[in-house]
Design a protein that fits this description.
- The protein is of the alpha+beta class.
- The protein has two domains: 53 residues, no CATH class; 118 residues, Beta Barrel (Lipocalin), CATH 2.40.128.
- It is 18% helix and 51% strand.
- The chain has one helix and eleven strands.
- The strands form two sheets. Strands 3-5-6-7-8-9-10-11 form an eight-stranded antiparallel barrel. Strands 1-2 form a two-stranded antiparallel sheet.
- Strand 10 and strand 11 form a beta hairpin.
- It is globular and about 85 Å long.
- It starts with a strand and ends with a strand.
- The N terminus is likely disordered.
């Protein structure tokens, strides 16, 4: 015995479709198309979220600088990592830090120590550092935008460093390898 309205529920979390005895029945083809569309939409959303999670999780770790290219106007300088120094970048889920020092622990005439860090954001391959701390204080409170690529154990970071107060305006390309330590 029918009461005048029938409820058809595909899934408990989807809206209930109400029809009365005068409406046309929903064909099985329409039902199948609706389900296929819903599954397709859900799979696209999950795929997009997965790609962001994959890049974010792959950037986390400790990276050692192996080369750096600086481009200032028409001058390009390529530097392979100095064997008497070591620079690392440490990246976790929300923050980054970089540390550079000489390997002789300041015991000769060339004493090197540079450190800084802050928060970062990463969307797709667009990586933005917010430098909150630096032993060269005029670099603090600046924002630096980069494009990053990760292939196997290599991270390449390319972007512009601009600090107006000290006249820095250059393109940098840094290449890192993931440390095994």
């Amino acid at each position: 015995m029918k009461t005048g309205t029938d409820k058809i529920s595909f899934f408990s979390h989807l809206p209930t479709i109400k029809r009365n005895r005068h409406s046309a029945p929903i064909s099985s083809t329409a039902k199948a198309l609706f389900i296929m569309f819903a599954l397709l939409a859900a799979s696209c959303i999950e795929k997009n979220q997965t790609s962001e999670v994959t890049l974010t999780s792959s950037i986390i770790g400790t990276w050692q600088l192996i080369s750096e290219t600086k481009i200032v106007q028409a001058d390009t300088t390529v530097t392979v990592a100095n064997p008497t120094e070591r620079m690392i970048k440490i990246i976790n889920a929300t923050h980054f830090a970089f540390l550079k020092h000489d390997l002789k622990k300041g015991q000769d005439s060339v004493k090197v120590f540079v450190a800084g860090g802050g928060t970062y954001t990463l969307k797709d391959n667009h990586y933005v550092e917010h430098l909150d701390y630096c032993n060269y204080r005029e670099w603090e409170a600046n924002r630096f935008e980069f494009e990053v690529t990760i292939k196997n154990d290599t991270l390449v970071q390319q972007g512009r460093e601009k600090v107006e107060g000290i006249g820095v305006d250059r393109i940098i390309i840094e290449k890192y390898i993931r440390t095994k330590e």
